[in-house]
Amino acid sequence: MLFVRFVQTRGGRHRLSISTEERLGSLIAGAGTMWAIYVATVDYAGLWRFHILPPGPVEVCALGILAWVHAKWRALDESRLKRCFSLRSERISERAMSLPQNSSLL
User: Fold this and answer.
1) In the structure, what pLDDT confidence band is assigned to residue 8 with cuts at 50, 70 and 90?
2) For residues 53 and 8, what is the distance between their CA atoms, to the nearest angstrom?
């Protein structure tokens, strides 16, 4: 919820563009992955015992993936809206063209 509050303003518009949110999510996920690798390789013997990673790096990676998926969802939603409105305007113009022109009513 905190990330959604950061990204979205009161009017429902987003503060970050879709591409910026994608990049930010990718960077956060990458940083979480690098942190997880660092934590796992500090105690290299613990890898053979399948020692569970401490909380932190995995959650950061998941947060980055969540932000990236949210940006992809926004892009998909935006393209659907554009397509829907363009189809609607085409249908309206087709209907207007198919109506008989009756100048006596004007």
Assistant:
1) low
2) 33
